[in-house]
Amino acid sequence: MVDTIVVGAGIAGITAARLLHTAGQRVLVLEARDRVGGRIWTDRTAGFPVDRGASWIHGVTGNPLMGVVTALGMETREFTVGSFQAGGRPIADYDESRRLLDDDATRQWATDVDTADGLFQRTVAASGPDESYATAAERTLAATGWDAERVERVRAFYRHRTEEQCGAEADRVAAHALDEDTIEGEEVIFPGGYDVLPRALAQGLDVRLGRTVTAVGRSARGVRVDTEDESFEAARAIVTVPLGVLKAGAITFTPALPDAVAGPIARLGMGVFNKVFLQFPERFWQDDVYAIRQHGRAGVPWHSWYDVSAVSGKPMLLTFAGGAWGQEIEQKTDEEVVSSVVGALRKIYGNSVPEPVAHWITRWGSDPLARGSYSYVAVGSSHDDHDAMAEPVDGVLHFAGEATCGREPATVHGALQSGHRVAEQILGSRISLAELTQGVTPSR
Predict the structure, then answer these.
(1) 2-40+194-268+377-437 has which CATH code?
(2) How far apart are CA 190 and CA 195, in angstroms?
(3) SS3 for 218?
(4) Which of 88, 92, 290, 422 gets the most CB atoms within 10 Å of its CB?
């Protein structure tokens, strides 16, 4: 019998397992996939890393993840337009007629977003828990007195913001959903691939791959964890599977989870946010831009493309599909998706856009081991629901993962913090996060 069973080998699970292991506990990690990392998934089949899951560290200042990354010697590259921002770095902005905005128009656009966001904060502060982001945005935009074109550009920006940062439509997202969404400092990506992190932290741990957990039972004696073929017993369990898996009831809990935990699971939303990478035979877009953005109604369904050539060493663009559109592309063939993206680019750049030579498309919503990309505060829920999920159940069952971190949900560092938190809960003492990388060497 082990001390602790960890269900899931994503960052939350690996962090908790490693800290408990370092403290002398016997820890068993059960992972349904054939790899560690969970929603960190680096595809290396092309000879260079393609991060199909997490890509960015959002805000390096004061971010606990940066200390871990530095200790592991992971290479980073600054890329500060990772989350949906109006400016930050050079962006090729196109108007509704697909003409490139000049410097004055670009500055005016960024100023409009700053102005609207200032108004929006006051609108949200006066909003109740059942008001949507879309409703708050409309009240804000109505107060600006701007002409229809300026309003529509910011409206589209807000719509895309929730699609990217929540994986959901603005009318499904709570007005207060992004209250905690502050970024301090630059954002970075990983030329060597994000999966270096979980693979390094998993070294020396008892991680058993291909074990899909179907049930967790608890009693005064501890827990019993059932997979499709085996059963394991321990003093306690930490469940770190994605919120989408919990919402789908893929794991049976006996006795049933108390309302204090089951309620937040039901109320919080699980967003769908997919990536489409296109590799081209040559570069056709401007040099020295981080991103290409199509404004207004012309930005439906594709509106932003990020230049990730520096990671692959090949001419590559990355675009996103979130919310309803993210769900819709999961039902399309690769050829249909690629054709749609290329068609949108050709409306901007004309026949200079060649056919891609390679592509990568994610489908996180239909992945049975994720059932979505990350959590969000849905209409009727709150940030407190994230934290309520983290409360231990009967002293033997714990939950961790990005969905249990009210301050930083939907982020890798939120998942890391949740794993750190639950390890401290179990051990009953403070643990320095520096212990996480003791004796660990990067897995490249």
Answers:
(1) 3.50.50.60
(2) 9
(3) strand
(4) 422
